[in-house]
Design brief:
The complex is a heterodimer of chains A (462) and B (126).
Chain A lengths: L22 H8 L3 E4 L3 E3 L2 E4 L1 H9 L8 E2 L2 H10 L14 E3 L1 H7 L6 E6 L2 E13 L2 H9 L18 H7 L4 E9 L4 E2 L10 H10 L5 E6 L5 H10 L10 E8 L9 H13 L8 E7 L6 H15 L3 E4 L14 H7 L21 E4 L3 E4 L4 E4 L10 E2 L2 H9 L11 H14 L6 H10 L2 E2 L16
Parallel strand pairs in A: 1-6, 10-11, 10-13, 11-12, 13-14
Antiparallel strand pairs in A: 2-3, 4-8, 5-8, 6-7, 7-8, 9-18, 15-16, 15-17
Chain B lengths: L8 E7 L1 H7 L9 E3 L4 E8 L1 H10 L4 E2 L5 E2 L3 H14 L4 H8 L2 H11 L13
Antiparallel strand pairs in B: 1-3, 2-3, 4-5
Helix pairs in contact in B: 3-4, 3-5
Classes of the chains: A alpha/beta (462), B alpha+beta (126).
Chain lengths: 462, 126
Amino acid sequence: MSLKMSIPPPHGGKLVDRVVRDADKARSLIAGCTSYDIQPTHDKDMPIRNVYREIMSTCYGFLSPVEGSMGRNELERVLKERRLESGWVFPFPMLFDVSEEDKSRLKVKGGDRLLLKLKGQPFATLDINEVYSIDPKDVATRTFGTPETVPGVVKHAFDPKHPGYNIYLHLNPVVFAGKYTIINEPTFRAPFDRFWLPPAKSREEFARRKWRTVIAHQTRNVPHLGHEMLMKNAAYMGDTEPANGILVNAIVGAKRIGDYPDEAILEAHEAVHTANYVKPDRHVVSFVLWDMRYGNPLESLLHGIVRQNLGCTHHMWGRDHAAVGDYYDSYATQTLWTKGIPGFGFDAPPCEVDKGLVLRPQNMGEFWYCPKCGEIAYNANCGHMDVVQRFSGSFIRSLLAEGLAPPPVIMRPEVYRVVVKWWRELGYPFNNKHYLSAREQELEVTVPRMEAAPAIAAGGHR
Amino acid sequence: MSAPAPAGYSLAVLLDPKRVATIRGTPLEHEMSDLFGGAIKALILRVSPEQSQKLLAAFTRSRTDSRGFLEELPVSFKHALFEEIVRERSTGPKVIDKVLGRIDALKTEAAREEDHLPAPEMPNVA
């Protein structure tokens, strides 16, 4: 048996591609459809979700084999077993939800096609096969688990302070289930355009670079040296040699106040290779559109699916992966990928179950600065606990806010330069209300004007 | 992250060259800590549980980190705290209380900070 690996198949066996690129076909698909304007979901005037991102990620195959909004049976199976009706592993409910008022106004039913408009232009369709009601609080609670249903992993009950729980809590009570199809491809604005590498393109790029093994690095942060060390050292895992490539895949979407702007996150990671801290021929930066659920082990499952679909062979998992607060155990993600979490339907790791992932986990500890070692040291090596200094994102944000330049032992100067560039552009170094609201208006995309659209019945809006 | 632990927390007042010059020759000079191999100088204060609770309640974006430090406090608060430290020539609990005495005015300044923070000069990178 060869020890050499190769780029894995997509999750579910086939990449979903639900994008119509022929304008005439698109126009015929939407002829006579009732239309619906997509709007963001808000909580206390702040945008927390925009379903357009889920539609994009579905139709371009990031979430393969998911093809649309889930039906009632599939929702139940995801909540109980984290599996789709087809049996393939999937962590989160994916739902197109509308209000009772919109349901009454739209008057659509199973078998109808709904035209979804974004920024006033035709964007996608939803071929409705089921209309049903949900209890958002029940969906939110069962999505994330409770200390009783997932003991030892969920430390305390979720509440509206958790941004992911809050997303599900704010669902409308009616779900239209069915497949999405993009009929008018949006165009990404700068700087997102040069980082847009959907699964099919990502796989082409890996093939062009002759990469056999690729390790994924999840990010929602501007990288400090601790991140960089995790990324580089995890990449020593490959097959018969270290990983050929490193994919930094950022989550772009609704974020929390105080996070870094997505534009800065992408360009800061790019700076790591343009400044040759990792050679550009070994390092790619791209993104996926997703409004973070901050679901720690569940989020890692989604990340695993997305990155396997992008063509990665390995995924690095760290402490508190995609976590906020202390709802989950700090090592919940590593527990999932080491032995499974029965409360979430996994008696074994998701890479060791039928219809699970083939992407391999690389669980990592922590890098810290040790003045005695005189280096950024790995926690399993360095035992100078009395003097080590941990990297803290909060500490670095405090330092930046005071206008102090972080020393190179904390942040690469080229990365800091990107932070300052976007700070000057936006008037603030982190996400604030102004940025998040403006960003949700503008989105990451423009939607081309669709010429000579047929007469469309006006419907509701979310 | 934002729930205060009973033991209280630490708080680092970072010292840029200007602040280092201000405390040079005072007793505070001997309290300076080196962080990250001396790349950062700081004064480290202990904050009581009661003081921590008041700060976390006053500044909603503030949080504690895995090192047990209070972080993401407003810049205006940090400036006021350094002023009190220099005035009192101390990093004892009294300086935190003094700043807490100005908390309403600092909250107003912090709200303004949420809209705009002046960016530093663009760093030159070789």
